[in-house]
Amino acid sequence: MQSFQVAGIRKYVVYFLFIFFSGLLSTVDYFSNKTLSNFIPEQVNLISYFQIPDILLQNEFSSLSSSRADLVAENIRLKEEISNLRVLYVENQELQDTVESYNLLIKNVSDFELTYYSTSLILKNSTDEYLISGGRDYNFEPGDLVINETGYLVGYLGEVFNDYSILESFNSTNFNFRALDEYNNIFEVNSNGKELIFSSLVPILNSKVGMLYSDITFGHINKFPLIDLEPYKETRLNNKFTVIVPIEKMLSFQSKLFIPKSK
Amino acid sequence: MKVLRVISRSTFLFMLCIIENYLNTFISLDFGVYVFLISLLYIGTELFNQNLVIPIFLSGILYDSFFSTYYLGLYTSIFLVVVVVSNFAVSRYSPSNFLYIVTVSLCLLIYKLPIILEFDLNYWLTGYLTSVFVNSLIFLFLKRALRNNV
User: Fold this and answer.
1) Which chain B residues touch A196 with a CB distance below 8 Å?
2) A86 to chain B nearest CA, in Å?
3) Do A194 and B123 touch (CB under 8 A)?
4) Residues with Cβ within 8 Å of residue B35, at least 6 apart in sequence
5) Structural domain includes residue A36
6) Are the beta carbons of A226 and A179 closer than 8 angstroms?
7) Facing residues of A207 across strands?
8) How far is B45 from chain A (nearest CA, A)?
9) Best B16, B50, B63, B65 residue to mutate vs chain A (most A CBs within 10 Å)
10) Shortest Cα distance from A155 to chain B (angstroms)?
C-alpha cells in the first residue's frame, strides 16, 4: 500500500522539479527587473508577420458592440483631421465652461505638432490587458498615452516590446493615472476592473467636478480629455472628492487607437 | 525525433494558448472559453505523461515572454500545477462527472489566480461560475466525444 503511494507521488517528481524551476525563473526575473522575460521578445518580432484576417474583422458578431464607433471612425481618418477635431473639442469644452485659465494652455496645445501613430488591438491576455501593434519600432515608450478616434484617452502603454506593446486600459487593475480638472485640481485614477475610481489628491473648493485631462506636468505628451465627471455622483470627505464611474465601453478590434508622439 | 516531437507538441500547445486568447478577445460576455485550460485538463486526466512536462513548460515560457506582464515562469508554473492537480484528483478519487466539474472549478481558480488576486470578489465571481459551467460542459463533451471515437 505504502509502495503504491510512493509510486503515485513519484510520477509527479519531474513536474515538481519544473514547477520549482519556473519559480526560480520568476525569482531571478523579479530581482533582475524583468530582464529574463524581456529577453525573448527583444530578439523575436512576433507580431510584424501576423495579420488578422479581414473576415474576422468584418465579422458581425465582433462588430455588434462597436458599430457606432465604426460610423464615427469612418468620418475621421486622417491624422491631421483627428488633431484638429481634438483641439476644437477641447476649445469648445473650455468655452462652455468659461474657464479663462485654460485658454493659454489650449493655445499651447494647438501649437503642439504631434505625430499620431495609428495602432490596433491584437488580443487580450489572460489578465485583461490589451496587446496593441507597434512598439520600439515606432519609438514607443512605457507611459505613452493612447487615445481613440474622438481624442479621448483610453489608457497608456504599460510595457513596450519590439513590435507590440501592452496597453494598460481602464479594464486593467494596473491602471494608475493622474489627471487635472478645469481648476487644476489633481486627481488620481485607479481601476478595479469594472469601475474607475477618481480621487482628488488635494481639497477641492469648487462644488462640481467637470472634465479631466492629461497634463504635461505628469509627464504626458499633451493635454487630452479623459472623462467628464459631471454626470456622475461624487462623494466628498474633507473637501476631497471621490467619483466612481462604471466602465461601459470595451475595446474591440474595430477600435481605432492612436499614440501621439512628438516629431 | 525526440526533439521534433517536443517542438511540435510545444508549438501545438502554444497555438492553443494563442487561440484561447483570441477567442476571449472576441467574446465580450461575462465568461471565458479556456481552450488551453481544457487541453491541460485533458492532459492531466487522460494523457498524463512525464514526456509532456517539457512542452507544457516551453509553452508556458513562451506565453510568459510574449503575452504576459507578469514575471517569467509564473504562468509556466500555473500550467504545470493545473496538470498535476487534475491528475491527482482523478487518480485519488473515482472518476465521475461531479469530480470533473470540481476539478475544472479548482483548476480554473488556479489558472485565473493572478487576476483573481487583483480583482475584488464581485468582479470575478459571476464570471468564474459561468466559466466553470461553460468549460465543464466543453470538457465533458470533449471527453465523451474522444472516448466514442476511440
Assistant:
1) none
2) 29
3) yes
4) B16, B19, B20, B23
5) no
6) yes
7) none
8) 13
9) B65
10) 16
Q: Which residues of B touch A59 (CB under 8 A)?
A: 26
Range of the domain at A150: 114-262
Question: What is the value of pTM for the model shown?
Answer: 0.62
Comparing CB atoms, the residue among A15, A16, A192 nearest residue B123 is: A192
Residue A32 lies in a domain: no
Instruction: Supply the ipTM of this predicted assembly.
Output: 0.88
Q: Do the domain assignments include residue A123? A: yes
| pLDDT digits (tens), chain A, 263 positions | 445 455 577 888 999 999 999 999 989 888 888 888 877 777 777 666 666 666 655 555 555 545 555 555 555 666 667 767 777 887 776 676 544 433 433 444 444 577 778 788 888 887 778 899 888 888 899 999 998 877 788 999 988 988 889 999 888 888 889 998 888 888 899 888 788 888 888 777 777 778 888 888 888 888 888 888 888 888 887 777 888 888 877 787 777 788 888 87
Q: Which residue of A has its CA nearest to B89?
A: A8
CA distance B119 to chain A (A): 6
Backbone dihedral angles phi then psi of residue B120, each to the nearest 5 degrees: -80, 165
Per-residue cell: A80: 491631421
Nearest CB to B119 within list A29, A124, A193: A193
Chain A residue numbers touching B67 (CB-CB < 8 A): 123, 125-126, 131
Question: End-to-end alpha-carbon separation of chain B, Å?
Answer: 26
Residue in chain B lying closest to A19 (CA): B77
Q: Give whole-number Cα distances, A121 to A130, A167, A224, A253, B92, in Å.
A: 7, 9, 21, 6, 44
- The domain total for chain A is 1
CATH number at residue A244: 2.40.10.340
SS3 A147: strand
Structural domain contains residue A19: no
Alpha-carbon dihedral sign for residues B31, B37, B41, B42:
positive
